[in-house]
Amino acid sequence: PLLHALQKLPSSGVQLSDDDRPGVSAYADDLKIFSGTKAGVTAQHELVAAFLDWTGMKANPAKCRSMGVRRNGNGAVEADNLDLALADTPIPTMTHHQSYAYLGIGDGFDHVRRRIELAPKLKLLKQDATALIESGLAPWQVVKAVKVYLYPRVEYALRHLHPEDQHLKGFDDHLRRGLTTSLVN
Fold it and tell me: What's the predicted TM-score (pTM) here?
């Protein structure tokens, strides 16, 4: 219900095309709101805060971030503090030169350097897969652990990074060989 309510706000979102105006993104228990105006983000934030109060849920302001930007008189992008808070605790503000890391993936305007970050992440995921496969767990436990713990990390990374096919194929081959060996033995 919250996602639909946020998307229905008239000031919600950023117009990408005639019929596409995204204003909210969610992954697991995390929420990202965005708007083309400071008033739009404020309205979205107030709706989220009211929803949290209504449901009795609590958010941790220390794990939240806000980023506002605007164009100055010369047309250059500069920070614009949104002054958001949850339960009277200010939400930390980022500048347009910063990013917030979630599941090891940076999110912000400095995203260009993030395009090459999947290779090291896949290497770590391969190591984790190997540890699971060699752990002595029953094959069904290994498969469940891969599904619950490894795939979500890969899936989130793929939403934000553009990997080379060879990196994905290497991870897929490694996982397939390991699981096949685990199931056969």
Answer: 0.60
